[in-house]
């Protein structure tokens, strides 16, 4: 079982004046089915860096939640932590997998400009995935209809909003849907994650 660093969302509990890190409980069993043991990373750059250096991570998962600060989000500590972890993973040649916000962060990092999109918050949306029709969930309000040369587009919604990208030369893969939210994990998503992290049976 390979260890994989998993980023967390920031939730603000105003009544008790707390900023809390949180992770959907469905992530751990999903990743376990893919041969990966999830290690949640706190949104603290120093602690995250220390954990990254201390454990034999095989890659990084950037999860959903929180709009990036560049687009009006309110979790700068998460932005800073994820940028640090992305840089560390890529410097080590390790795979990075982004989901929803994670894809937005990666698009922004590689020069894609995001904009508000409508109609992309739904439990089921028909898209074209790797040239074939597919149905996925969708829970985002920012996206892009154009990419950059380094990022290949391999899934797109009917309105042209990009739903998945893959870097041409780096081990970077990202999707806009949430595989962890499917009541039954999608076989195609499981195969995708296993292939990306080298845990395919």
Describe this structure in words.
- The structure is a single chain.
- By secondary structure, the protein is α/β, with parallel strands linked by helices.
- It has a single domain, classed as Class I glutamine amidotransferase (GATase) domain (Rossmann fold, 3-Layer(aba) Sandwich).
- The protein has 5 helices and 13 strands.
- The strands form 3 sheets. It has a 9-stranded mixed β-sheet with strand order 4-1-5-6-13-12-11-8-9, sandwiched between helices.
- Helix 2 runs parallel beside helix 3.
- The longest helix is centred in the middle third of the chain and has 16 residues.
- The protein starts with a strand and ends with a helix.
Distance between the termini: 12 Å
Question: How many separate domains?
Answer: 1
Rg: 16 Å
Give the full name of the CATH homologous superfamily. Class I glutamine amidotransferase (GATase) domain
* CATH topology label: Rossmann fold
Main sheet: strand order: 4-1-5-6-13-12-11-8-9
Average pLDDT figure: 97
Runs in which pLDDT lies below 50 for 5 or more consecutive residues are: none
Helix/sheet category: alpha/beta
Number of DSSP helical runs: 5
Q: Based on the structure given, which CATH architecture is correct? A: 3-Layer(aba) Sandwich
Quick synopsis:
The protein has 201 residues and is α/β, with parallel strands linked by helices.
Detail the topology: elements first, then pairings.
Elements: E1 2-7, E2 9-13, E3 18-22, H1 27-33, E4 36-41, H2 45-54, E5 57-62, H3 76-91, E6 96-99, H4 101-109, E7 115-116, E8 121-129, E9 132-139, E10 142-143, E11 151-156, E12 162-167, E13 172-175, H5 187-197
Parallel strand pairs: 1-4, 1-5, 5-6, 6-13
Antiparallel strand pairs: 2-3, 7-10, 8-9, 8-11, 11-12, 12-13
Helix pairs in contact: 2-3
């Amino acid at each position: 079982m390979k260890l994989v660093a998993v980023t967390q969302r920031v939730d603000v509990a105003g009544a008790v004046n707390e900023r809390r890190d949180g992770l959907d409980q469905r992530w751990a069993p999903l990743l376990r089915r893919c041969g990966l043991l999830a290690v949640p990373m706190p949104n603290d750059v120093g602690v995250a860096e220390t954990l990254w250096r201390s454990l034999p991570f095989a890659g990084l998962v950037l999860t959903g939640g929180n709009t990036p600060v560049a687009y009006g989000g309110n979790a700068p500590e998460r932005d800073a932590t994820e940028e640090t972890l992305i840089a560390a993973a890529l410097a080590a040649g390790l795979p990075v997998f982004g989901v929803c916000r994670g894809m937005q962060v990666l698009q922004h990092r590689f020069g894609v400009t995001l904009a508000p999109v409508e109609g992309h918050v739904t439990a089921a949306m028909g898209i074209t995935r790797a040239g074939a029709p597919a149905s996925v969930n969708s829970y985002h309000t920012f996206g892009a209809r154009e990419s950059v040369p380094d990022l290949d587009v391999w899934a797109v919604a009917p309105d042209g909003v990009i739903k998945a990208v893959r870097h041409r030369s780096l081990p970077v893969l990202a999707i806009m849907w949430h595989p962890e939210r499917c009541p039954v994990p999608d076989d195609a998503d499981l195969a995708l994650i296993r292939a990306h992290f080298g845990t395919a049976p």
